[in-house]
Amino acid sequence: MDGVGHGTHDIWVCRAHPGSGGIRIESIERLIDLPGGVPEAKAAACSLVAKVREAPRSAWGFDAPFGGALPGPGEEGGVRLTERERGVAETPAAAGRWMQARILEPLAATSQVCVLPLQIAPLAVAGMPPAMAAGVASTYVLEVAPAALVEALRAEGLDLPAVGQSDDATRLRGLRELSAAGLVRPMARGMRQRVAADAGAGGLAALYCALAAWRGYRGYDHAALHGNADYAEEGFIYC
């Protein structure tokens, strides 16, 4: 999901399913174009919360800060630890407060939702017997950043375009790179063109968010991250 906290018309939602051959993209839409999506900020937040609650056995990646930097003695909050480590731009403290109040707190109050790494719960495992699943969250919410994912995948040898800094042809080449690397399954032509179009820059960012959520859920020790005082309070950018 891309654009949370920047303006409700800029919120994009990418729906995808994981598999051995990478994630399969099902849809990429603006929130206001989805059933229940609205342009007004407060109502849009309620719509987002409802959509997460209605999607069991899922991982949601939000391109929005989960908190603000912990202030030192006599200091105000600054750059979060995870932002320094990922090399991404500092996010306004107001955005973190909006995210916490409007999205994270309502979700954290829902028993089946776990906000990582602020909360910690045993991870759901495919085929887990019902008796063992008691108390295990089925929906996970993670903070992601398209720029951090792009840098991580570039370090792994992929040649990917940055969001908003490339033309259609470059974006299409990036989608082919993701497919060749087994991260995103081949997409229908219409979907590829939608993601690559200049008007759909938010679509590419949302696709990156979905990929980061998939990688983040399965590729990190969430309990160890929760044990870090900074991450447990400020959030952690998964990629």
Explained architecture:
With 239 residues, the chain is an alpha/beta fold. The chain has one domain. It has nine helices and six strands; from the N terminus they run ββαβααββααααααβ. The chain has helices at 41-53, 81-86, 93-108, 146-155, 168-180, 189-196, 201-219, 222-226, 229-234, and strands at 12-17, 24-30, 58-62, 113-115, 139-144, 237-238. Strands 3, 4, 5 and 6 form a four-stranded parallel beta sheet that branches. It has a two-stranded antiparallel ribbon with strand order 1-2. A hairpin with a 6-residue loop joins β1 and β2. α5 (168-180) crosses α6. The longest helix is centred in the C-terminal third of the chain and has 19 residues, at 201-219. The chain starts with 11 loop residues before the first strand and ends with a strand. 38% of the residues are buried.
